[in-house]
Amino acid sequence: MPIKPDAVIWRSLLDACCKTNMGLELSEELARQIMESEGDSCSGVYLLLSRVYAYENRWDEVGLIRKLMTDKGVTKEPGCSTIEINVVVHEFFAGDTSHPQTKEIYQQLDDIEERLKFVGHVPDSSQAPMVDDLDDEIGHSLRFHSERLAIAFGLWNSKQGIPICIFKNLQVCSDCHNVTKLISRVFNADIIVRDHIRFHHF
């Protein structure tokens, strides 16, 4: 490498490892490099590494990372997504039940889940590493990501043909990306999600 790698480069490589499943040893080495240059208090490194462990079905290590984060007081920033409907901005956090239309939103989520099962969607357990290795809990955890709540709200309240536009404070996980693509196809909806890295247009 022509330049000395810094934490940004190490983090980009670790993120690429998570997305392409390039191997556990490389991921652990990259995480070590990041912690050496940045300190071991950043939650992103722990979460990326836990995804690699989850992909490898090494749930004991996922549990150890969760414990290590708790012991060091490292917290994960909660996922938050916003959507504007009729000039009113609505905000959703992961697992949110505070919205006045919570009942309708969760009914819509149930409908989405049933339709996606019908077309063959299976939740990607590596994207929900902070739950135990139980398929129903993993799928349950993923379905309550903030952008899915916002999408369900948008489907419930938007007129056909009006794009559903969502802004999210964190990066969209690969399972939510795949689910949103399927939702767009199954519901014939134009969906745009802006996370903290890029726009996703489905």
Protein model, in words:
- Pfam families: DYW_deaminase, E_motif, Eplus_motif.
- Belongs to the PPR family. PCMP-H subfamily.
- There is one protein chain.
- With 202 residues, this protein is α+β, with helices and mostly antiparallel strands.
- The chain contains 8 helices and 5 strands, in the order ααααββαααβαββ.
- It has a 5-stranded mixed sheet, with helices on one face.
- β1 and β2 form a beta hairpin.
- The termini are far apart.
In short:
53% of the residues lie in helices and 12% in strands. It is built from eight helices and five strands; from the N terminus they run H-H-H-H-E-E-H-H-H-E-H-E-E.
Q: Approximately how much beta-strand content do the residues carry?
A: 5-15%
Principal-axes geometry comes out as elongated
Number of helices: 8
Helix/strand order, N-terminal first: HHHHEEHHHEHEE
Mean pLDDT: 80
DSSP summary, beta strand count: 5
Helix content: 40-55%
Major beta-sheet overview: 5 strands, mixed
What gap, in angstroms, lies between the N and C termini? 36 Å
Low-pLDDT parts are: 129-140
Name the strands of the widest sheet in spatial order: 2-1-3-4-5
How would you classify the helix and strand content by structural class? alpha+beta
Descriptors for this entry?
202 residues; alpha+beta; five-stranded mixed β-sheet
Topology summary:
Layout lengths: L6 H14 L3 H15 L4 H13 L3 H14 L7 E6 L2 E6 L8 H17 L16 H9 L2 H12 L6 E5 L5 H13 L4 E4 L4 E3 L1
Parallel strand pairs: 3-4
Antiparallel strand pairs: 1-2, 1-3, 4-5
